[in-house]
C-alpha cells in the first residue's frame, strides 16, 4: 500500500483532519461555545429563570456520559463515516427544532438528543480518526482539531449575537441548524473515510515508525480493550480525565473573581478572552510537545494550570498578573482534550483505542457535570479563592497520575 494517494500528493489524512475541524469548529463550537449567549433571551421569552433553562446543558452532559459507554464499541464495529455524518444531521435537525420550542421541557429533550450526538462529534471524533490516519504528528493533529472548537466559538458568537439582536433567538437556533445541515453534514458524507486501508493507503508516517514496531511503547503496538481493563493504570487515567475536566470548570468562576477584586466587567471579559487564548494556543502547542515527549506534555499541562491559579491568587490586585494567570490556566483547560487523548494513546496504543478512550471520556463528561456545580457550592460556603486553592491541589494530583501513565507505558 502507498502512504500517499499519489506520489507527490497530499496524504488524505489531512482531509480527515479538516473534517474533524469541521465537527469541532461548527458542531461543538455551536453546541458549547455559543450556548451561553442564548441563556438570557430564551429564559426571558419562556418566562423561566436562567438557571432552570440551563438545566438542558446538564442533561446534555449526562446523556453524553451514558452514550459513551457504547459509542466506542459502535465506532469499532460500524462505519465512522456514517456515524459522524448521521449524528451531524441529527444535531442540525435538533437545532432547527429548537427555534420552534415554547416550553422549557422541550429544551431538556433537545439537550438529551444533543448529548447523544456529542458523544461522537466531541469526545470520539478527532481522537479516533487521527489515531487511525496518523502514526506521526498525532499530537499536533489532535491539538489542531481540538483548537477548532475555540475558533468556532470566536467566529459564531458575534454572528449569533447579531442574529438574536435583529431577528430573535429563534432565528439564531434555526440558522445554526441550517449551517450544520447544509454545510457540515454533506461535507462529512462526501469526504470522510473510515480507515486508510479503505483507500489503499497506510497511515501518515507509517514508514517512519515501521522499524520501531517491536519496541515497547511503539504506536503500532497496544492493548486490547479487555487487557486495558485489567491494568491499574487504566483506572488512573480515568481519574486523571475526571479531575482534569473538573479543574477546567474553574474557568467559569474567573470573571466573577476578577470583578470581586474591584475590576470592571470589561476587564473581567478581557480575562475570560485571555483564558481562551491560552486554551487555543495551548492545544496546538501541547500537541506539538506530546509528539516529542508525552511526559513533558503532562508537566506543562498540569504545572502551567496550577501555576496559573497560584498567580491569580497572588496577583489579585494587578490586572497584568491576573491576565498572566488566566493565560497559564488556559493550558490546563487545553490539556483536558489533548493530554488525555495522548496519554491514552501512550499508555495503551492504537489496537482498541476507540473503545478504551470512550470509557475514559465518560470520566470527562462526568467530571464536567459534577464539578461545575461542586465548585459553586464550595465557593458559596467559603470563597472563590478557596476553590482555586483546592484546584491547585487537584492539578498537582493530575501531575502524579499523568506521570504514572507515561512511566507505565515505558515498562
Structural write-up:
- This protein is an all-alpha fold and 411 residues long.
- The chain folds into 2 domains: 13-206, Growth Hormone, Chain: A, CATH 1.20.1250; 223-410, Growth Hormone, Chain: A (Up-down Bundle), CATH 1.20.1250.20.
- The chain has helices spanning 13-33, 36-46, 50-53, 55-77, 80-98, 104-133, 138-167, 169-191, 206-209, 225-229, 232-248, 254-260, 265-292, 294-314, 319-335, 338-348, 353-381, 384-410.
Short summary:
By secondary structure, the protein is an all-alpha fold. 80% of the residues lie in helices and 0% in strands.
- What is the C-alpha radius of gyration, as a whole number of Å? 21 Å
Helical run tally: 18
Any idea what the shape is? globular
Number of domains: 2
CATH topology of the largest domain: Growth Hormone, Chain: A
- The CATH homologous superfamily of the largest domain is named MFS general substrate transporter like domains
Q: From the helix content, strand content and strand pairing, which structural class follows?
A: mainly alpha
Main β-sheet description: none
- SSE series: HHHHHHHHHHHHHHHHHH
Q: Kindly, what is the distance between the CA atoms of the first and last residues, rounded to a whole number of angstroms? A: 32 Å
Could you say what the CATH architecture of the largest domain is?
A: Up-down Bundle
Classify the beta-strand content into a percent band.
under 5%
CATH class of the largest domain: Mainly Alpha
What are the segments in which pLDDT stays under 50 over at least 5 consecutive residues? Answer: 3-7, 216-220
> Helix share of residues?
over 70%
Oligomer: single chain
Whole-number mean pLDDT: 87
What is the number of strand segments? 0
Amino acid at each position: 500500500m502507498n502512504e500517499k494517494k499519489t506520489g507527490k500528493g497530499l496524504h488524505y489524512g489531512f482531509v480527515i483532519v479538516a473534517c474533524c475541524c469541521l465537527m469541532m469548529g461548527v458542531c461543538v463550537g455551536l453546541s458549547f461555545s455559543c450556548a451561553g449567549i442564548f441563556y438570557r433571551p430564551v429564559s426571558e421569552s419562556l418566562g423561566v429563570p436562567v438557571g432552570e433553562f440551563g438545566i438542558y446543558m446538564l442533561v446534555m452532559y449526562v446523556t453524553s456520559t451514558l452514550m459513551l459507554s457504547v459509542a466506542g464499541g459502535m465506532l469499532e464495529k460500524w462505519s465512522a463515516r456514517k456515524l459522524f455524518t448521521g449524528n451531524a444531521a441529527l444535531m442540525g435537525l435538533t437545532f432547527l427544532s429548537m427555534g420552534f420550542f415554547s416550553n422549557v421541557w422541550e429544551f431538556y429533550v433537545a439537550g438529551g438528543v444533543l448529548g447523544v450526538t456529542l458523544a461522537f462529534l466531541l469526545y470520539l471524533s478527532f481522537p479516533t480518526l487521527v489515531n487511525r490516519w496518523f502514526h506521526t504528528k498525532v499530537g499536533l493533529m489532535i491539538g489542531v482539531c481540538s483548537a477548532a472548537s475555540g475558533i468556532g466559538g470566536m467566529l459564531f458568537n458575534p454572528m449569533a449575537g447579531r442574529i438574536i439582536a435583529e431577528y430573535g433567538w429563534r432565528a439564531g437556533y434555526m440558522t445554526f441548524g441550517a449551517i450544520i445541515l447544509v454545510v457540515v453534514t454533506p461535507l462529512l458524507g462526501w469526504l470522510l473515510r473510515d480507515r486508510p486501508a479503505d483507500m489503499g493507503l497506510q497511515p501518515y508516517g507509517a514508514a517512519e515508525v515501521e522499524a520501531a514496531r517491536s519496541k515497547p511503547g511503539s504506536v503500532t503496538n497496544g492493548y486490547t480493550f479487555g487487557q486495558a481493563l485489567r491494568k491499574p493504570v487504566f483506572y488512573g487515567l480515568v481519574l486523571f480525565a475526571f479531575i482534569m475536566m473538573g479543574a477546567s470548570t474553574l474557568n467559569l468562576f474567573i470573571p466573577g473573581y476578577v470583578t470581586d477584586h474591584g475590576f470592571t466587567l470589561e476587564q473581567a471579559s478581557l480575562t475570560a478572552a485571555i483564558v481562551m487564548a491560552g486554551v487555543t494556543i495551548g492545544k496546538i502547542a501541547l500537541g506539538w510537545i506530546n509528539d516529542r515527549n508525552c511526559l513533558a506534555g503532562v508537566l506543562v499541562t498540569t504545572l502551567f494550570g496550577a501555576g496559573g491559579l497560584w498567580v491569580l491568587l497572588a496577583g489579585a490586585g494587578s490586572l497584568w498578573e491576573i491576565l498572566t494567570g488566566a493565560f497559564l490556566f488556559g493550558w490546563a483547560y487545553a490539556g483536558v482534550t489533548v493530554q488525555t487523548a495522548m496519554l491514552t494513546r501512550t499508555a495503551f496504543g492504537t489496537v482498541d483505542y476507540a473503545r478504551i478512550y470512550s470509557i475514559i471520556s465518560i470520566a470527562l463528561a462526568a467530571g464536567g457535570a459534577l464539578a461545575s456545580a461542586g465548585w459553586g457550592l464550595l465557593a458559596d460556603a467559603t470563597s472563590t479563592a478557596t476553590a482555586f486553592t483546592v484546584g491547585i491541589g487537584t492539578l498537582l494530583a493530575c501531575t502524579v497520575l499523568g506521570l504514572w501513565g507515561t512511566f507505565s507505558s515505558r515498562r
